[in-house]
Amino acid sequence: MEAGTPEGVSFQQPTKKIPKRRIVIPSLQSFKDEYEKVSKYYMSNRIRTTKYRLWTFIPRNLYEQFHRAANLYFLFIVLLNWIPVVEAFRKEITMIPLLVVLTIIAVKDGLEDYTKYRLDKMINNFVTHVYCGKTGDFVDKFWKDVKVGDFIQLSCNEEIPADMVLLYSSDGDGLCHIETSSLDGETNLKEKLIVKGFVEQTTEMDPESFSYRIECEIPNSDLNCFRGFIQHTSKERVGLSKDNLLLRGCTVRNTDIVVGIVVYAGHETKVMLNNTGSRYKRSKLEKKLNGDIIGCVLLLVVMCSVVAVGRGIWLSNHPGQYVYNSGKQFEPVWGGFLMFWTMIILLQVLIPISLYVSIELVKLGQIYFIQNDIDLYHEPTDTKIQCGSLNVAENLGQIEYIFSDKTGTLTENKMVFRRCSIAGQEYGHEENGKPETKRLNSGTRCSRGEGKGGGFRETDVVPDQRLVSKFRRISFNFYKKYETAEPISEIMQISEFFIALAICNTVVVSEPETTGTHEFWGKVFKEIEGIMNIKIERSPSIELVSLDAPDKFLVHEGMDLLCAPGPDVDGLPLDYDPAELSYEAESPDEAALVHAARAYQCTLVARNPEQVVIDMNYMGILTFQRLHILPFDSTRKRMSVVVKHPILNRIVVYTKGADSVMMDLLQKEPTGNENTDKNRKKMQERTQRHLDDYASKGLRTLCIAMKILSDEEYEEWLQGHFLAESSIENREELLLESAERLENNLILLGELERKKWLTEESKTLKSGINIWMLTGDKRETAVNIAYSCKLLESTDQLFVLKSNKRRSTIALRISASAHVKKPQFSYALVIDGPTLKFALHDRVQKKFLELTASVRGVICCRATPVQKSQIVTLVRKERKVMTLAIGDGANDVSMIKLADVGIGICGQEGMQAVLASDFALAQFKHLKKLLFVHGHWCYTRLANMILYFFYKNLAYVGLLFWFQFFSGFSGTPMIDYWSLIFFNLLFTSAPPIIYGVLDQDVSAECLLSNPELYKASQRNEPYGKSAFAVNILDGFYQSFVCFFLPYYTYRNSGIDLYSFGSILNTTMFFIIILHLVIESKYLTMIHFSVFAFSIILFFSIIGTFGALCVLCNPPANPYWVMQRQLANPVFYQICIVTTMLALLPRYLSALKPDISGYIAIFIWDLPCCGFVLKFLHYLGTSCPSISQAILSRDTSWHSSIPMSSKHHIMLEGGRDTGS
């Protein structure tokens, strides 16, 4: 395609409706009219990720905050207090709690949004180079001023401002390397290609000579797809793909200058369309909390109704009395009705308005300690746990189902070349991957940066000596024989097998001194030019491989010397060291294959979009012209590369893929030669046996095949493939059909196996948690890994569901269900992807779930990403259980997002799973502590703190409630308004937060060694109905004692209202604080410091208020009340006695294990056995552990009872049970 002049060119314009396709017109003066017509459909490149604007912040933030039911409740209280007849407090005082909470949340939201604003401003003001038609050169412009159709010039290490199609690169091979870490977290470089037809440019592109239009799909969020074409005025089209698109946010690497035209800008770029914000997941505890708050509202209604009824009765018995707060007289019924609303205002504290703020602060503290846990840090990769969500930390303590990927999760993504079968012959490499392995072959080389510390390195490959001896026999004679003989000889199959390993991949080659491939590629050919005294054109349009002469494999005369048999690679007249080559692979699989080929002296030397160079040692350097790449996809499950073979001088297709699909694509038709057909069949059968054997041992299998095409076959296929590439609609389907037309009648070269190493301690998560393995691997491999990681036991009976019809699936389920009911066996279920498709059908899924509930383990093999997400959703919704999904690859993202807790593993398959997860771990073994320790702590701490809040508020409100029985149900508080407000807002707010962040009911060591303790949080024991009821009753009891003991002490004493209230207020303050001390299982200096601070704050504010605020609480006067009480010895006596009596039940409950233990010791020493047995009978019903310990004369239990300890850990049956 040649560049023409744009003058007089007019493109067809779209209609006024938004088109289904995007037409991009260059922003040039010659296209001004056409550009103005279509530019209205384009968005600017300015971005805004903030939620608020300055003038909308207050109304919008208030609107969002009042979506919370609690805030609406307190707003109702505030408005209710403005009605004079029901006014309980001064109007401004009632507003304080709500204003404080609204202000704290608003400040938090405002700071978060302001941070986004500053980041947006910084990004929008980045500078880039945009072509200006007036000056005829590239000028500096802000990112926010970039428009669709602009030509952008970027230099090395510059960030891409918008999605743009690559039109020019200073790299002679038409390449541009980009780093996509900002998109997917991957730091390995990606290759982008110049649009076909623009590669021939020898000088920098002149935008004024651009006379094309681009037609592409409308903006979408799919990062892995881009469809469109670029069209010349002559209607000639060239297809565009994702390889031609540079995405916003990526960084240009190893390329001096690139030029592209913007097709998507601003919020229409793919990265911005994927920026959907953080996901919100409600925790199970939060859902239960909402229900309990409703219960507290009902309790509030009951208490207010009691007072209202009492008020009506009192007014009936005392007619003509004036209401205290209004000075008016009311009828009993009307007075009782008004008193109901007055008490709603007075007892509003029963609903904990500060609880939500406290929960957020506690979660922040819990996340901080999780992130700074040294045990969750992986030193070799310098990776610590990452927390992406604050809402689900407590869910970690209630997980009932774990859905785990196998590859990279239960197994590490460390690939080691273990075995191969070529031409039906097996070659073992058992020494590979062992720590004590030493590289025995000089050809075994390791790339830089591989293998940290001791142990094995994935790139260390010890060649099989039998295969080495055969490989040394490879020569051009075997290829010449192929031209006249069929089938391919064994030696030629070995040669082609390793050639396929070396070139059928996307591995990038570089030297340590360089960070890209194009510099090294240029160095190689520069050396060739100098040594051979020839000139090699760098343009990819010049073919370096001869397509005509079979005896000369490179175009230029004299170059056939490099391809002839000669000395070892070290003796070649080419100045490069294979040991210094470095490979950057997108997956460990590809890296393992390339290193295996290099171990046999088939070294990948260089790669560019048009050619691949390999060093075959005895055959010299071979240059393959790369014609096409058919990338791997989950539908085909294979990858192919089409090349021009320099020796065969034919078009060759190399294909690698899963054996489940590859074996069906092999040559089946008879050749007419009976011996040939018989040998081919035997080889395929032997290879299949090897595949089954390797899979049963947990090895990952891969088939390698090739196909030799004639020129006519290739041209016929190329026409259809070209149409598929230039299509926009149904492009994926057309490309799939094109690939399937090519990938058939393949010649099997062999197959190989790679070892996936088990992660350390991947077999420890079996304590009341159901674990399902969801993998795309074949059944034999998945089952073997399940046995290795102890997901399955050797005694388990396996049921395998494998069917391609729904009716058959139901029948298999019924057959399996009949067996799993036998109690003498344990069972496991194995189901493959096709069967799973029918098992998830609406009519079958419930029966399928019934079957899975009867087995101890489920393995889903050959499962697609969609099926993984469907399984997670089905179990979570139908079973009503807490689910956790864990994986490390992009195929696990959907199930990670749909589970209650999603965990990503920072592996070698990119960062998509990590970016989509709630928590990201460096290794699977860290999951044990995350669940058993931090999960248990987070749930228990938060549950206990919430219960404490309910208890604390009810105990305090109870004082006001009891006082109404002795004040004519008048709604009069005996505590001043400011003390009522500050009690929960300031005085008692900090201690429960510290309690929720730092408390440890059981030590980490105990939780790790006794996974059974995890079942307590699974069953919601810390926050069950009984626990909630006990705290409510305890609150009523403590308020009862705290009120009536001082009341009867000062009865008929003439004490004033606020003096009596100050005694109650102070006593209840110490009861609440000491109650928390009793409940705390782990006290540190931080706790005591916070307790001391709260006490000082209480007396300082109350004392200051009583000394200065003479008229702060009209009509009453709290002046000098606290000071007078502090000078009265009776005040101290009442506070001490009341506090002790109120806390006595809670204290005895906390000491119950100690008391039972001392009773047991006393009984053990009694001489009367009859009395002992009777007592044991009694204890057997209430405390079985003690009776069992005594009957077994367990002296270790006797010695474990602490002599002076308020909190301790009892040893029950040899296990820690907690305090």
Automatic annotation (TrEMBL):
Mg(2+) binds at D405, T407, D888, D892. CDD domains: P-type_ATPase_APLT_Dnf-like. Its cofactor is Mg(2+). Its main location: membrane. SUPFAM superfamilies: Calcium ATPase, transduction domain A, Calcium ATPase, transmembrane domain M, HAD-like, Metal cation-transporting ATPase, ATP-binding domain N. It is a multi-pass membrane protein. ATP binds at D405, K406, T407, E590, F632, K656, R700, T775, G776, D777, R862, K868, N891, D892. GO terms for biological process: phospholipid transport. Its EC number is 7.6.2.1. Residues 428-439 have a biased composition (Basic and acidic residues). It catalyses: a beta-D-glucosyl-(1<->1')-N-acylsphing-4-enine(out) + ATP + H2O = a beta-D-glucosyl-(1<->1')-N-acylsphing-4-enine(in) + ADP + phosphate + H(+); ATP + H2O + phospholipidSide 1 = ADP + phosphate + phospholipidSide 2. This is Phospholipid-transporting ATPase.
